[in-house]
Amino acid sequence: MKEAIIIIFLKVIIVTGVLAQGYEWQPSDLPGSAFLKLIEIDGELFGAVGNGPLPFYYPEYKYQLTIYKIVPASDGVNFEMEEVKSFNSAEHYSTITIDYIKETSSWLFYQSAFVSSSKQLYRILLYDKYFNLLAEETLDTMGIPGSFHTDTNGDNTYMVGSILTPLGDKIMYFNYSHKYPDSLSHIQITQTFPNPTLLISSMTCDKRTGNLLIFNYDGLAAVDTNLIVSMFYGYNKIRTFRHGYMINIEDNYYSHGLAPQIINGPKINVVHKYDSLFNIIKADTFGILGKDNYPFLFKSLDYKNDNVVVGGHLEGLGSASDFSQIIKRFYLAKLDRGLNVKWYKQFGGDKAYVMLGVKMDENGGTFAYGYITDSISEIPNAYLMHVDSNGNNFISKVNDANTRASIRIVNPSFGTLTISNPTNIYCNIHIFDIKGHLVKTFKLDNNYLQCNVADLPVGEYFANFVKDNMLIECIKWLKLN
């Protein structure tokens, strides 16, 4: 089971893109995307979509990350994605997670770069709200990244992540002090956490005690800001383990995680409400008996306006050897703080969905995000869906890999860039030079297009094809005289 979880998380987490300014930027030259995270800033939602292959298998390729503003329509159901900033990496770093710190109006990006099968480079980048680079911290260490998680409490933002090594798992730890908004502390590696530390599945700040609530393979640890364990709660206490998410709401704790249906058998998803000592007040289960269910991989629980929303897969690790490849259903459920279910809905069943997280909006609606793996190309495609406050009026957007296969460029090109579009995919074309500078834009609105590029110098260029504010293809081409 542990080995299976490692494979899954490597595939899920490392597919994402890179974001860093002050470097030389180039578009990604392989398809693949995932909706990485949704972040709320002053009541508005912003999302991050990463493009690029898996660096664990393709260390020679570059990565892209685009930040979008999620704009709700007046009907409270539909939404659009407006591009805020897109970055193309000339380096080999992929972004594991990002965060926006409202207290300092700054962005934090947590990245890794492949060195060998057991070694990675890590870095943390700090930007102001306009994406100007303020500071950078790097670390060279043994180990492959598992999942990294961030949260803010008071004057500090914390990051805790798993580093998987042949000699035992480690913990990466980082503390960003808001009192020094333009600088970063050193990245720390520690093994003080109770073993095994296999894949921390979530970390949140306990606003009541100031501790960090770390959900890992064996249960829940409450640790102080020096990573000294104050309490550890295994399955016998909290009745959930392996993978989950826990938050503190006033004097109560809420979790959404796994519980066994039978010993060493398939798992069921369970949501709990605890008192301040982690005694269970109420519990409810979600999933299908006899099936191996599994929570959303990064964030399976969210809270807003006295409502709790949870999300999980209805086919999990025990359903197939490759979790990301199997066709599966997933669910969303909305509950009040007493865990009374307001609605429960199932989705999917037609594609290989891998859901990473859930987020509530200001209108009581719910977003869920992740990616869909194409059954033919095995390419992951970023996926975002929304339902209204009653779980109805389902709307979704997907960065479909099938659209990429039909667009072709005559390569090399001379004074004219010729594009073949046999399936009539209408989109915008952004031409970048080798340094990542936008040099031309065109509109693809026919099945055949010739673009005048005679004024461009000889050299290598990238054509980004953008549809509904999402990158659907990036093609590298050579301009000759």
Task: Explain what the structure shows.
This protein is mostly beta strands. The protein folds into two domains: 2-401, YVTN repeat-like/Quinoprotein amine dehydrogenase (Methylamine Dehydrogenase, Chain H, 7 Propeller); 406-479, Immunoglobulin-like. Helices cover 4% and strands 54% of the residues. The protein is built from three helices and 36 strands. The chain has helices at residues 2-13, 235-238, 402-405, and strands at residues 33-41, 44-51, 64-72, 79-88, 93-101, 106-116, 119-128, 133-142, 144-153, 156-164, 170-177, 188-190, 202-205, 212-216, 219-223, 229-234, 241-249, 252-260, 267-274, 280-286, 294-295, 301-304, 307-313, 329-336, 341-348, 352-360, 366-373, 380-387, 395-398, 408-409, 416-420, 427-433, 438-444, 448-452, 459-467, 470-479. Strands 21, 22, 23, 24 and 25 form a five-stranded antiparallel sheet that branches. Strands 1-2-3-4 form a four-stranded antiparallel sheet, with no helix packed on it. It has a four-stranded antiparallel sheet with strand order 5-6-7-8, with no helix packed on it. Strand 5 and strand 6 form a beta hairpin. It is globular, with a radius of gyration of 22 Å. The N and C termini lie far apart (57 Å). The model is unreliable at 1-30 and 54-61 (pLDDT under 50).
Reconstruct the topology from this structure:
Blueprint: H1 2-13, E1 33-41, E2 44-51, E3 64-72, E4 79-88, E5 93-101, E6 106-116, E7 119-128, E8 133-142, E9 144-153, E10 156-164, E11 170-177, E12 188-190, E13 202-205, E14 212-216, E15 219-223, E16 229-234, H2 235-238, E17 241-249, E18 252-260, E19 267-274, E20 280-286, E21 294-295, E22 301-304, E23 307-313, E24 329-336, E25 341-348, E26 352-360, E27 366-373, E28 380-387, E29 395-398, H3 402-405, E30 408-409, E31 416-420, E32 427-433, E33 438-444, E34 448-452, E35 459-467, E36 470-479
Antiparallel strand pairs: 1-2, 2-3, 3-4, 5-6, 6-7, 7-8, 9-10, 10-11, 11-12, 13-14, 14-15, 15-16, 17-18, 18-19, 19-20, 21-23, 22-23, 23-24, 24-25, 26-27, 27-28, 28-29, 30-31, 31-34, 32-33, 32-35, 35-36
